[in-house]
């Protein structure tokens, strides 16, 4: 059984708002977020040549994900997108489906709001949403630098992997870490966290399971 207890109590600005992504309308803002986030947070964990080759691919927003009912963004008081991410039932790259298992997708946080609880707000909402749709566990292909964060969210390491960021043999190779969490435990802990009351959210509760299981045109991103 996947099990890991997490406890965290850090202040978060009440001005942050979680909302569904708006497809093409959010592409530019999410692209800027991904470029800044991956460059800043991945730089200490990856050789420059690896990151330079991977960044144009991992930082490119995937429109099908942005249009999915399970993709979210976080906005600050000035309506700037400061975090983004979602989940699907289909595994990144392979589109494989495993009963009861969801996959976290393309999560990133603006370096300017790091360590303010924004990532926990977003990922916690994704975990609860997947659990509400009947999923029991959630996988993540984490960047090397993000492993400690995902561990705090209840994930445990399964395996270190190298993913190919494209369909051919010349595509960049990118190290990542395969992780998994038990959603029942993670969501129970998330609901108990009193930080949940510190932020306005606009997460819809009426998204259908069929919509959540849609298989977008996937590319090889690490999440």
Helices and strands, with pairings:
Layout (H helix, E strand, L loop, with lengths): L16 E4 L6 H16 L5 H11 L4 H4 L4 E5 L5 E8 L12 E9 L8 H15 L4 E6 L4 H6 L2 E10 L8 E10 H10 L7 E2 L7 H4 L11
Parallel strand pairs: 1-8, 4-5
Antiparallel strand pairs: 1-2, 2-3, 3-4, 5-7, 6-7
Helix pairs in contact: 1-2, 4-6
What topology, given as strand order, has the largest sheet?
Answer: 6-7-5-4-3-2-1-8
Order of helices and strands: EHHHEEEHEHEEHEH
Overall number of strands: 8
Uncertain stretches: 5-10, 194-221
Shape: globular
- Give the rounded overall mean pLDDT: 83
Summed up, the helix count is 7
Radius of gyration: 16 Å
Structural class by secondary-structure content: alpha+beta
Share of helix among residues? 25-40%
Distance between the termini: 22 Å
Strand content: 15-25%
Query: What composes the largest sheet?
Result: 8 strands, mixed
What does this entry show, briefly?
The chain contains 7 helices and 8 strands; from the N terminus they run E-H-H-H-E-E-E-H-E-H-E-E-H-E-H. The protein is of the alpha+beta class and 223 residues long. Residues 5-10 and 194-221 have low confidence and may be disordered.
């Amino acid at each position: 059984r996947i099990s890991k207890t997490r406890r965290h109590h850090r202040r978060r600005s009440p001005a942050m708002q979680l909302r569904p992504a708006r497809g093409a309308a959010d592409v530019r803002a999410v692209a800027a977020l991904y470029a800044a986030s991956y460059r800043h947070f991945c730089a200490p964990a990856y050789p420059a040549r690896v990151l330079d080759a991977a960044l144009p691919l991992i930082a490119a927003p995937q429109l099908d994900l942005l249009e999915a009912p399970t993709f979210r963004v976080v906005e600050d008081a000035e309506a700037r997108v400061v975090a983004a991410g979602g989940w699907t039932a289909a595994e990144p790259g392979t589109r494989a489906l495993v009963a009861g298992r969801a996959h976290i997708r393309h999560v990133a946080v603006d370096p300017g709001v790091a360590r303010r609880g924004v990532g926990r707000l977003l990922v916690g909402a994704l975990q609860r949403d997947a659990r509400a749709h009947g999923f029991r566990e959630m996988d993540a292909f984490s960047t090397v630098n993000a492993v400690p964060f995902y561990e705090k969210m209840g994930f445990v390491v399964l395996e270190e992997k190298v993913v190919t960021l494209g369909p051919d043999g010349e595509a960049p190779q990118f190290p990542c870490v395969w992780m998994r969490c038990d959603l029942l435990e993670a969501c129970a802990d998330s609901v108990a966290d009193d930080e949940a009351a510190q932020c306005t959210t606009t997460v819809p509760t009426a998204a259908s399971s069929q919509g959540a299981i849609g298989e977008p045109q996937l590319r090889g991103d690490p999440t």
